[in-house]
Amino acid sequence: MTDLQSWVAPTYQGLADLLTAGPARTWEAPSLCAGWSVRHVVAHVTMPARLTPATFGAELAAAGGDFGVLSDTVALRDAALPVTELLDQLRSPVLHAWQPPGGAAGALSHAVIHGLDVTVALGRPAVAPAEAVTAVLDQLVDAEGRWFGVDLTGVRLEAADTGRAWGDGRPVRADSGSLVALLAGRTLPDGRALPRR
Question: Where do the Mycothiol-dependent maleylpyruvate isomerase metal-binding domain residues begin and end (predicted)?
Answer without folding.
Answer: 14-92
